[in-house]
Each structure stands twice: as C-alpha cells, then as structure tokens.
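Feature request, filed as a ticket because there's no other form

It would be nice if the structure record came with a short human-readable summary line next to the tokens. Right now we just get the raw output. Example of a typical job, pasted below so the devs can see what we mean:
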Amino acid sequence: MLARLVSAGVALMLLGRADGEALVGRSGAEDLAGISETAGMVGNAGGDALGDGARVDSVYARAGVALLWSTDAHLTAQARELVALLNDVEAFGLRPQDYGVDSITAAAGGLGASTEPRALSEFDRSLTAAAWRLLSDLHYGRVDPRLAGFELTESRRDLDLPAAVAALATAPRVADAVAAVEPPFYHYVLLKLALARYRALAANPSLTQLPPLGGRSLKFGDHYAGALALRRLLLAVGDLPGDADPPGEPTLLDASLVAGLAHFQRRHGLTVDGSLGASTYAALTVPLSSRVGQIELTLERWRWLPAPDSPPIIVNIPEFRLFAFDTTADFADSIVQIPVIVGEANPAKRTPVFIGAMKTVVFRPYWDVPHDIAVREMLPKIAANPEYLARNHLEIVRGETDDARPVDPSPDNVAALARGELRLRQLPGDDNSLGLIKFLFPNVHDVYLHSTPARGLFQASRRAFSHGCIRVEDPVGLAEFVLRNAPGEWSRAAIQSAMQDGKNDQRVALERPITVMILYGTVIATEAGPVQFFDDIYGHDRRLERLLGLAPTLRSAALR
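Raw output as currently delivered:
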C-alpha cells in the first residue's frame, strides 16, 4: 500500500515548485504546505503502481486540459460543489484533514482575477488530488482489508480513477457522480443516514451519563436514581416512542421504561428481559461518540465488498446471524434470516472473515475431527476412559476417504493418532457434532456451515461457542434455500427424510455455486429504522482503528 503522506519536499516537487513561494498572493508557506500535503495523500487501498504525481498527471492527460476546476481564474460550479462536499466528508465517515480540506477551502476563497497562473495550477492539482483520494477511498476503502485480517480476495470492480476524476469536473451534479462510485448496497445508504443521526446525538455527551446501579440488577417496580436520565436517553435513541406514558414516580422503573429497556436490549444483541443489569448498563453508558466510531468503521468495511453477481449467503459474525438472499439486492423482504453460532473469541477458535463458493450439501455427514482438537481435547479423555470412543460414536481410522476402515483403539493406534498417522472421526447420527447436514464451500480454514445437536445454545444472546465453523439454527430452512435449484426434488419433507433416514454421507452437488460471504460488522441500520449495535467480540474494530490511525473510541466505564 502506498503511503498516504509524502515529505514536504516531495510534495512541493509534485506540484512543480520547490521554492516555497506564496500561494494566491499570500505570504508564508502555511497554505502551500497544507495543499501540498493534500497532493501527497492519494495512496489508498485501491491505489495502483503510479506515484502520487503521476496519478494527478494522468487525470489531466485523460481530460486533455491544463485546468479542471477554474475558468478565467474563477471556480467552476463543479469546483465549488466539490469543495463543499469535501467540507462535509464526515457524512461519509471520513476525516476532513485527510483531504487537506482547510487549506483547499482557504485557497479557494483567495482565487480571483489577480491570481498568478502557477498558483491556479497548484490549486487545481491539489483539488484533483483530493478528488482522486475521495473517490478511491469511497470505492475501495482506505486500507487493504487483508491488513485487517479479512481475506476478501474478490475486491470491488476496478474503477478508472483518471476518467472518474476528470468526469467529476464536468458532472451536472458532483454529489451524484461521487455517489456512483460508492458501494451499491441499500444498507450502506441506511448506515450513512444513521451516522448523521448518531453524530447529532453525540453532540450531547450527557445523554449516556447515568448514575451507577449500586451493585444489583433492577427490575420492574424497582427504584433507580437515574430513571429520568434513562428515560431521556431511551427517548433520544428511539427505544421509547415520543408518546410514551409520562412517569408516575420519577425514580420508578415503570412499564414504559421496562419496554424501552427491552427494545434497547434487542437492538444491542443482549438478553431481552427488560431489566437493568450490568451488561445492559454497560451498553447504555457507551458514549454516543463511540457509536459514531462503530458506524464509521462499518462503513469502511462495506467499501471492501464486491457486489454479488448472484444471490449470496452472508454471515455477520458479531450479529450471530445468517442472511440468505433471494436476489442480489439487500432488501429485508427478500432475505431469509437464520440465527447462527460462531467461533469463540479465543484467537485459535475464531471464525475467519473470507468469501467462498458453496458447492455441496452433505446429509448425515461424518465428522472428521481436526487433529489439533483430537490431540488437545479428546486424547486426554480417551486415555482416562476406555469407553469414551464408543460412548461418543468415535472411531480411529486409517486413510483420508469416507470409506476408510476403522482400526482397533489399541495403545499403539492411539499413539499413532497423536502423531497424526491415523485420524479420528465421529459416525453420522443425532449426536454427531455436525448434526445431520453440512454445507461445504471449500476453503483453507476447513470452515463450513452445519447443523448441531446442541440446540440449547441458540437460546444465548452471545453465541460464540464453536471452534470456528458456523452452526445453523434452522438447517432445514437453509437446505430448502440452497437446494431449490439442485437436481432432484428437495421439499422440506424430502430434506428431513434425508437427514433422519437417508444414507450416510449423501452428497448433493449444487447446480450453480452460491457465494458465501463470512463478514464482520458491528452495526446494522435496518429498513424499519432501528440501528443495531453488536459487541466487537474479536477485537476487529480496535484493529481497524489502529490501521486507520484513529484514536481508540471511549467505551463505557463498565466495559473497561
């Protein structure tokens, strides 16, 4: 990735002058330095091999003009609109200082008939550099997702940046031309709207400053000194309707407050019980500026995603939810949603972020126990209890295929299992750790979707329990979706029959692969209006903050 900043000397040479001469009739180098710095900040996740100066040159070569943004030393309408838009880049979740906005704005105000040609050229190139970076940041994102640990090998479609920047200078509406390079997802647009709302809420930091609970969970009918402040917060963020019943007693947790707390809990992935306990209090007291930060980070991740060519399946890890799309458009009424269980927060057991292609459904699968799990978790139990293998329908086998023959669990064979010379597998059946069906999309992580016999775990609000694979609450419903175009007749009854009474390891190849996107976003703006926030269970938000050079967002005192 190209550096975002270049030295002051290189930046001056990039603009064709190295003498620090005053810009637009001003004395001193302050404005020049600011605008020069902007020209050097055009490197980003979608950058190519061109140097920064060459990028700017390529725009003028494509446009075939010397100046893009002024006529007779006066700004064009497009230049004025672009400068205004740069002053409002926070609406996109971006930082004005990354585009030299203050310097560009100051210089734009000083242009006039007496402006020297060289100063006009320098301003023009600076605005072109800022436009390049803005379009690239909005199209590709500011950092390479691989640096954030996201294996998104399918990147956004290439954008001809020289042509896009040149076209911006003649666009009927600059805002429309900019919007055309952004992610083509409806929920990205909804999230930008949510950003504006939460930025306005964050202007009042006192909203989330609630009195402590006093060491116990509070329920309906209890008294809380912060009840009025709590009501004010819930009204502000939309968890209490504006026409909610006024409080009878100022400190009472009445029915309307309990209903508001339940709505808040639902939006934040918490246990929905309407009580005010430690986890709910912690979420309530997260500063709204931190929620703004979460939204900005999630907007960045949206920019990393390729537009699907066919209806995908998406898993959002911190939401513990799967989305099966009926079309390529992300509208809720055409998406099947299914709760899931993902990998633990332990780095060795996390579910990875990547994109794959589902090709096969397997009914009544064997579970081939990964060697590290066999050694770390099962060998001690086998050594302690000779009946462990039989009781859990496990067998030691020689060979890599499903027709491999089992061997006797003798001490020598158990030792060979520990050395990786033999392998451990669990027979198909109701107690198989994969349940009765799995959905394969080949990947280096050996991660897949599957059912599970541990149904009770879906009752938890925080469902990070697996070794990395993704357990599906409604595997029959997912199979109906996946197999709807597969050869044969796959009704719900046929699927259930194959799971319960079919032959072991029955494989059904899909007629067309289905794109599976395992993603990570801690905020979702819904079509119905509520904005949902989820815990950063793997710390990916904090990692992205560091990559973007952002200061860590303040979090609730209860979470620190």
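Something like this underneath would help us a lot:
The two ends are 33 Å apart (CA to CA).
The CA atoms of residues 326 and 334 lie 5 Å apart.
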